[in-house]
Design brief:
Structural class: mainly alpha
Helix content: over 70%
CATH class of the largest domain: Mainly Alpha
CATH topology of the largest domain: Growth Hormone, Chain: A
Number of domains: 2
CATH superfamily of the largest domain: MFS general substrate transporter like domains
Radius of gyration: 21 Å
Shape: globular
Number of strands: 0
Distance between the termini: 34 Å
Oligomer: single chain
CATH architecture of the largest domain: Up-down Bundle
Length: 501
């Protein structure tokens, strides 16, 4: 499943020096000579095969967030799902994933990140099997929620392990490859979904987009021993009130926004949205109270006082809202507007994937020379690509093909590839190694929530405009909104620390 995502990453990783795989199963850093407070919490170094394994684990959840976009019409036909349940197939995964990410990072800090990575990988394989065998729409929704929970257990361990088991230029390269993998996975998901649905492997149809995860998860489990075991030197207990309040805050925002338009905005959607600011304020106050009482909150306020983390997240949010909305809208516009088949709809985004990956690989060298101004340039290039796409769609609709769209999507992908991996480095630059799990959980939760928010808001705007103004105008309106988000990221990028450690 992840050949496109991981083969280039493995080749790049192979250029690094392979190090010992690290401690055996269940071995914590306390078995090593004691380190100074705040020092990295593992002596086992992350080697090339271990990094490759982690990148496979990073790719799977993001691919599966987007892979269903091109399969929704087929799922609707086979299971008679209807619009509301189709929205839940997407939203159920995204909400469970976002809600549990920080908790997953905390559990990895406490019980061992490799152990939680392997458990999450096994659970992801099993829940993917359940998705692929779902007999009806509600079973598929339930399996997707469980799959999102499994992803939340697995993904935070990837960045946390990189933070704890790499140093210096190796850490910068590994985080860069993580960013490249994450960005490529989000695009490759829709490409792969189109190919698998059209191929109809052994008559499985849309089910193949889930069943293909099973052997990949099995491979990940076999390779998990190449990942060094790390954990926090002073693990904190689970913050139950913080976890419940964060879940309430994210659920009351994301679920009504995802389902509202489809179900006609009933009373419960407005009640949930009205509860959201109170749940968010309650979460903030509970975390601050726990911090002042000497406890360890789910999201320590002291972590949010890190300037690099705050400023990096301020860019990750609008970037991800735009990206999530764009990918959803593109899937609908290409298939229903331009009448492209699933394969052609996926291939239309291939230039974006290639440009993103090449730009992200060049990113570390460019950052070493030009600093974080690479993010500013990337935003300008992404904006130019989106503007070109607006012009192309407006003047050529509906007689456009894959080649007509290629220059615009490639330029946008180039700009995105210069931004996302660097932003990940910015967010994590000053996070202490003993808080690597919660730091990576906060970052990925922010990204995932923003992706889901982008689908809910920009996707709903697009679908609401289509009946009244047509597909071309609706697409142009969404792209203009995304251009506004790009302008925000460009402006905020000027406040980033000029140099990264």
């Amino acid at each position: 499943m992840t050949d496109t995502t991981t083969s280039a990453a493995a080749a790049a990783v192979a250029r690094t020096t392979t190090a010992p795989a690290g401690p055996g199963p269940g071995t914590a850093d306390r078995t090593a000579p004691s380190a100074a407070p705040g020092a990295p919490d593992a002596l086992g170094s992350l080697g090339s095969l271990g990094l490759f394994t982690l990148l496979v684990g990073a790719a799977l959840p993001l691919i599966d967030f987007f892979i269903v976009n091109v399969a929704l019409p087929t799922i609707d036909h086979d299971l008679a799902a209807g619009p509301a349940l189709l929205e839940l197939v997407v939203a159920g995964y995204g909400v469970a994933y976002a809600v549990l990410l920080v908790l997953g990072g905390r559990l990895g800090d406490r019980f061992g990140r490799r152990r939680l990575f392997a458990a999450g990988m096994a659970a992801f394989g099993l829940t993917s099997l359940a998705c692929g065998l779902a007999p009806d729409a509600w079973s598929l929704v339930g399996a997707r929620v469980a799959q999102g929970a499994a992803a939340a257990l697995m993904l935070p361990q990837v960045l946390a392990t990189i933070q704890a088991a790499t140093h210096g230029t190796r850490k910068a390269r590994a985080i860069g490859l993580y960013g490249a993998t994450a960005g490529l996975a989000m695009v490759a998901g829709q490409i792969l979904g189109g190919v698998l649905v059209s191929a109809d492997l052994a008559g499985t149809g849309w089910r193949a987009i889930f069943l293909v995860n099973v052997p990949v998860a099995g491979l990940g489990l076999l390779l998990a021993r190449t990942v060094p075991e790390t954990r926090s030197a002073s693990p904190a207990p689970v913050d139950v009130p913080g976890t419940l309040l964060l879940a309430l805050a994210l659920t009351t925002l994301l679920v009504p926004l995802a389902e509202g338009r489809t179900v006609g905005w009933p009373l419960w959607t407005w009640v949930a949205l009205a509860l959201w600011p109170f749940a968010t304020a309650g979460f903030f106050l509970a975390e601050r109270h726990a911090d002042r009482a000497g406890k360890v909150p789910l999201v320590p306020p002291s972590l949010l006082r890190l300037v690099s983390l705050r400023r990096g997240l301020a860019l990750v949010l609008p970037f991800s809202v735009g990206f999530g909305g764009f990918m959803f809208v593109a899937a609908v516009a290409l298939q229903q507007g331009l009448r492209l088949g699933p394969v052609d709809a996926g291939l239309a985004l291939a230039p974006m994937a290639v440009a993103f990956f090449l730009a992200s690989l060049a990113g570390p060298r460019l950052v070493a020379r030009y600093g974080t101004r690479v993010v500013t340039v990337g935003g300008l290039l992404q904006g130019a690509g989106l503007a070109l796409l607006v012009a192309t769609a407006w003047h050529g609709w509906p007689d456009l093909d894959v080649l007509d769209l290629a220059p615009a999507v490639a330029l946008a992908g180039l700009g995105q590839g210069l931004q996302l991996p660097v932003l990940f480095r910015v967010v994590l630059a000053d996070v202490p190694a003993d808080r690597a799990g919660v730091g990576s959980g906060v970052m990925v939760t922010s990204q995932q929530s923003a992706l889901a928010l982008g689908v809910a808001t920009l996707g709903s705007l697009f679908l609401a405009l289509v009946p009244a103004y047509g597909m071309r105008t609706a697409l142009a309106a969404v792209l203009v909104c995304q251009l506004g988000l790009v302008a925000v990221t460009v402006a905020l990028s000027l406040r980033l620390p000029r140099r990264l450690t």
